[in-house]
Amino acid sequence: MKMIMRFKLVYLLGFLLGITSCGEWTNQDKDTFIEDCQRTKFSDAYCDCALEKALDKYSTFDEMTADEENMAEILLSCIEEDRTKEDK
To answer: Could you tell me which of 70, 20, 22, 13 has the C-alpha nearest to residue 42?
Structure first.
């Protein structure tokens, strides 16, 4: 199970790092982020969490994609929050 989660995380990070945008978060950036997150079969709550934290931390999509290490921490924190909600 952990291997599947790692694969999904790597896939999502890879996609996010492959996309570029200029200047700010556009609606298309946000939609693409959510669509790709959902494509990895993460829950809607997880995807919303990841997007919300990315929007709070980064002023642009480019800034987020350039900060792979911290973005991974955000994604992992949302995985943990999502697991906690599922356990309840």
So the answer is: 13
The CB density around residue 7, as the number of other CB atoms within 10 Å, is: 11
Helix 27-39 with 44-57: angle, nearest 10 deg: 140
Closest of 57, 56, 52, 63 to residue 30, by C-alpha:
52
pLDDT in tens, the chain (88 residues): 566 666 676 666 666 655 554 568 899 999 988 888 888 888 888 889 999 999 999 888 888 878 888 888 888 898 888 677 766 6
Cα(32)–Cα(42) distance, rounded to whole angstroms? 14
Query: Is the Cα dihedral 78, 79, 83, 84 positive or negative?
Result: negative
Domain limits of the chain?
2-87
Q: Which residues of 13-29 are buried (b: 16+ CB within 10 A; e: fewer)?
A: eebbeeeebeeebeeeb
